[in-house]
């Protein structure tokens, strides 16, 4: 990858899209992870206003600390208008949990609540986007958005534009190194931070991003699970299963097209 040229291309794309949309800037949720750090930096490089939102919900302290350090780094590095707001959504989330019917805690309940956190954050992002005429910048990468569907429908998947969605996770890391993103973010274990604990993306997915990238490329060129064994076979099957069950996130919403003869 020609990293510098890719960075320039994305920044130019962001500027063009913003100007064409007649909006005034970008708003982004800062999590303390590599994807939001890279995306916010690319947005800042456009020279247009950037609003960084911290939206903790029972957040791990190390995640919040990395987010704050990244925002300070952005403000020190760029002369463009860069602002930040912390909106603690913990009380809002807890109130919603109390309002929901009481049920036995299961993996399904925990996942539903994790997705609820993501959707509360999406709602908050669009509140500020509406106030300032900003675009919500997405932080999903290619393997998450189009490989395993590792995002929340109408949560972190609810955005106006996706600057890094054509980049594999490894390529996001390359750009992070090129941009000089804080080392602690580059070294941090990837996590969506939606469960209020320290579980990583790998814990949830069953494979790390390097493995999933390999499987995505192998599947795209026509390989099947039967052509592998051992860990490769296991990873390929993990990827294939996630890709299959999460297609509902990746394809357009189905529309019931009424036959013309029924409309006369």
From TrEMBL:
Positions of the NAD/GMP synthase domain: 7-249
InterPro entries, per the entry: NAD/GMP_synthase, NAD_synthase, Rossmann-like_a/b/a_fold
Recorded GO CC terms: cytoplasm
Keywords recorded for this protein, A-Z: ATP-binding, Ligase, NAD, Nucleotide-binding
Top-rank lineage group of the source organism: Bacteria
EC number, as in UniProt: 6.3.1.5
Enzyme class, broadest EC rank: ligase
GO biological process entries: NAD+ biosynthetic process
GO molecular function (one): NAD+ synthase (glutamine-hydrolyzing) activity
Reactions catalysed, as given in the entry: deamido-NAD(+) + NH4(+) + ATP = AMP + diphosphate + NAD(+) + H(+)
Residue stretches in coiled coil: none
Pathway terms, separated by semicolons: Cofactor biosynthesis; NAD(+) biosynthesis
Family: Belongs to the NAD synthetase family.
Protein name (record): NH(3)-dependent NAD(+) synthetase
């Amino acid at each position: 990858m020609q990293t510098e040229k890719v960075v320039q291309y994305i920044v130019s794309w962001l500027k063009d899209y913003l100007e064409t949309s007649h909006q005034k800037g970008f708003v982004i949720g800062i999590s303390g992870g590599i994807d939001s750090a890279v995306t916010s930096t690319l947005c800042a490089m456009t020279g247009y206003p950037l609003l960084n939102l911290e939206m903790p919900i029972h957040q791990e302290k190390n995640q919040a600390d990395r987010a704050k350090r990244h925002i300070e780094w952005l403000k020190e590095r760029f002369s463009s208008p860069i602002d930040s707001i912390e909106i603690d959504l913990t009380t809002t989330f807890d109130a919603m949990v109390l309002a929901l019917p009481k049920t036995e805690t299961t993996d399904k309940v925990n996942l539903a609540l994790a997705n609820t956190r993501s959707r509360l954050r999406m709602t908050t992002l669009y509140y500020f986007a509406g106030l300032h005429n900003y675009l919500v910048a997405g932080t999903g990468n290619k393997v998450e958005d189009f490989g395993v569907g590792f995002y929340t429908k109408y949560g972190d998947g609810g955005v106006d534009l996706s600057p890094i969605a054509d980049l594999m996770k490894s390529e996001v890391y390359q750009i992070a190194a090129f941009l000089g993103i804080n080392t602690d973010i580059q070294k941090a274990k990837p996590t969506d931070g939606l469960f209020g604990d320290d579980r990583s993306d790998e814990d949830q997915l069953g494979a790390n991003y390097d493995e999933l990238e390999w499987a995505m490329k192998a599947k795209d060129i026509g390989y099947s699970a039967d052509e592998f064994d051992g860990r490769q076979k296991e990873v390929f099957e993990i990827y294939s299963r996630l890709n299959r069950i999460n297609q509902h996130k990746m394809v357009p919403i189905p529309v019931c097209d009424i036959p013309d003869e029924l409309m006369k």
